């Protein structure tokens, strides 16, 4: 009986040790998990609020007509802000003062740099508004104003200066369809409706009867071929309004 009692007590002590060992292991696990969580929270806090990762440098690329330094100045209010807390809504608002910006993308480069990649609006022509020439893009957005004719783009003779109407849209579609070497020869574009686009080329007085913007790619290819076959010193009119039957009429 005494031996059985001793064995029972030994068994009970072993069970107590086994139970408390599990509890100790569980407590150690909780402590380790808590320490890891605290470390992660600390790292996140450091990444968000640490001055080490604050914005110190702003770079701008993709500009040609826009002064990159002016863009940097416009958003310099973000300097000193932790990278994770940059106010992108404020950046958007700051950049709206540049009508030449069509779109932009920001890129954060740790530890302290913000890159702004800009896509500029591409001018398609200039419109005369009173005594002022206005450089416009395909959407009719005014990009620049000048008292002198703006070099490198054709004049767009838009009915009543309407940059939202079908005549303007047709003129833009025609210009965008032209290959660069042909576009460089266009002095002006005129249309009173969407179906009667006409071009005047630089030089001796050659013009183009285009018609509507339909089949503009075919018409552009035909015009290029006709120009290549025609004496550049001969005034006249290229008619590509029927893209299957282009002709040059000397004057």
From TrEMBL:
One Pfam short name: POTRA_1
GO BP, one annotated term: cell division
Spans traversing the lipid bilayer: 27-49
The POTRA domain, residue ranges: 53-121
Gene3D superfamilies membership: membrane protein fhac
Single GO cellular component term: plasma membrane
PROSITE patterns to which the protein is assigned, alphabetical: POTRA
Compartment list: Membrane
Keywords: Cell cycle, Cell division, Cell membrane, Membrane, Transmembrane, Transmembrane helix
Protein name from the UniProt record: Cell division protein FtsQ
Species this chain originates from: Salinibacterium xinjiangense
